[in-house]
Write a structure and sequence with these properties.
Elements lengths: L4 E8 L8 E4 L5 E6 L2 E6 L18 E3 L6 E3 L5 E3 L10 E5 L2 E7 L5
Antiparallel strand pairs: 1-9, 2-3, 3-4, 5-6, 6-7, 8-9
């Protein structure tokens, strides 16, 4: 059985320019990114120290944890440098009628 998801509207696509991010105050918290016109979503909690990742530096494809400076690829959730070694969960994203929708995966443990 697939994990349970909750559909969350982020914004209109034209309100979300490339190179920006948005935080969803969902459970779990999710960070949503526009990378060169493609939208990605990952858990917004560092897999190393539980820091809020969206408060870190986003350089267009990677996000730096504001606590211990681990970096993650926002397209895949994969850690790019230590101390983090575990990937972040990714969430399905779709654009329907110009609306950015994230399917927040609530069925898997953090």
């Amino acid at each position: 059985m697939p994990p349970a998801t909750h559909r969350v509207r982020v914004c209109r696509l034209h309100e979300f320019p490339p190179g920006t991010l948005r935080r969803l105050n969902t459970l779990p918290p999710v960070a949503v990114f526009n990378v060169a016109g493609r939208i990605y979503a990952i858990d917004d909690v560092c897999s190393h120290a539980c820091a809020v990742l969206s408060e870190g530096h986003f350089d267009g494809t990677s996000l730096e944890c504001p606590v211990h400076l681990s970096r993650f690829d926002v397209r895949s959730g994969e850690p790019l440098c230590p101390p983090a070694t575990e990937p972040l969960r990714t969430h399905q994203v779709e654009v329907i009628g110009g609306e950015v929708i994230v399917h927040v995966d609530i069925g898997r443990p953090l």
